[in-house]
Request: fold
Amino acid sequence: MITTIIFLGLIVALAEVLGGSFVVMQKKWPARVQEYFIALGAGFLLALVFLKLIPEGIEKVGSLAPIFMIAGFAVLHFFEHTLVGHFHFGEEVHPEAMVSGIASVTAFSGLFIHAFFDGLSISAGVRFDFYLGFLIFLAVLLHKLPEGLTIASIMLAAGRSRKTAFLATAAIGCATMMGILTIFVFANVDEKITGFAFAFSAGAATYVGASDLIPEINRSRNRVLPLIVFAGMILFYFSSVALEELLR
Reply:
């Protein structure tokens, strides 16, 4: 059973890396294609916030969740608009960057936490009911490829190197494996700690999606981009709903 769970975890982790590699391996993406990836990533990230992080945060910590959400939003706003000018971080170092360096770190953090709980869900499901766990695995697998595309695209749009973009994708794949293995170490994961993490990430990721990524899309003359944003939202929605149904 342990071997099977680890094998399923490796598949979803590799799907994540494959998605990132698709972006990184291309020597130079045309500006329009990069815009498409950012639009898809914006929709995917915002759907993650509103369909997963916020509901989970509220469910686990109740009335404290909004406090951590606004804290996540405020902290990122402070770092981007107060400290960035002093430390010359992000766009000031990379003039070609479409989004800020801090935004890329926050997007990575949100997807890292999400990936961890993807792995945890698969591991717990297979351990206690193989059929249910396998269905969860399929639902999670659906969004791993676009998730890899998302984080690699955001990293490159923030002026990061291709090596960094690939390592970020690989790290999120590792987060999935961490979730897979956690169920063998801890019988229970403290719900309040995870709730606080979800809520804080929701606020920070909302800032990235709404303040960093969407404005770039709105400035473009390409009117297809809003449709790509919706496609990213729909993609996450269907995989998320499928996973929620399977967990019931």
